[in-house]
Amino acid sequence: MPTVRSMEDLRHIQEQAFQKRRAKAKAGYAIVIVGMGMCGIAAGARNTAEAVRNYIERNHLSDIIIKQAGCIGLCENEPVVQVIIGENPKIVYGKVTPEIAERILKEHIQGGRSLPEYVIEI
Q1: 104 contacts 96 by C-beta, under 8 angstroms
Q2: C-beta separation of 71 from 38 below 8 A
Q3: In Å, what is the CA distance from 5 to each residue of 2, 8, 9, 61, 121?
Q4: Of 38, 62, 84, 122, which residue is least crowded by CB atoms under 10 Å?
C-alpha cells in the first residue's frame, strides 16, 4: 500500500479504489463484505463468512466477490454483511446468521429483492 503523506495522496488512493469498484460493478459482479472486527467475530461472523463461501461454492457462483472488513462501528448489529451489486447503493445487513446470509445470497443477490427486515440504516 502506498504511503500517505498528504490529503492529496489520500484522495488519489481513494479515487483508485473507487475506479476499481466501478470496474467490477460494470463487469456485473456482486460484492459481499463480511465485518470481521473483534466484535463481529465474537458475534459469529466467522460462521457467517463460512456460510457465504459454502453457498457460493455449492451453487457454482462465479460472479460474487467475498471480502472481509474490520470494525465499521456497528457493534450492536454484528455480524454485519454489506452487499454491493453493480452500481447500486451498498446495502448493509445486521445480525446476519449463517441462515440469513444464505437468504441474502439467494433472495437479494440472485433474486434481486433485498431483505428489509435485516437492513441497517446508516
Answers
A1: yes
A2: yes
A3: 9, 8, 6, 40, 34
A4: 62
What mean pLDDT comes out for the span 55-84? 92
102 contacts 91 by C-beta, under 8 angstroms: no
pLDDT greater than 80 at residue 18? no
Q: What pLDDT is stored for residue 21 in this prediction?
A: 64
Instruction: Give me the pLDDT at residue 23, please.
Output: 62
Provide the pairing of β-strand 64-69 with 91-93: unpaired
Is residue 46 packed enough to be buried (19+ CB in 10 Å), middle (13-18) or exposed (0-12)?
middle
User: What pLDDT does residue 1 have?
Assistant: 59
Strands 30-35 and 64-69: parallel
Cα–Cα distance measured from residue 98 to residue 49, given in angstroms and rounded to the nearest whole number: 8
Considering only CA atoms, which of 82, 76, 2 is closest in space to residue 35?
Answer: 82
| Positions of E strands within the chain | 30-35, 64-69, 81-85, 91-93
Rounded Cα distance between 108 and 30, Å, is: 10
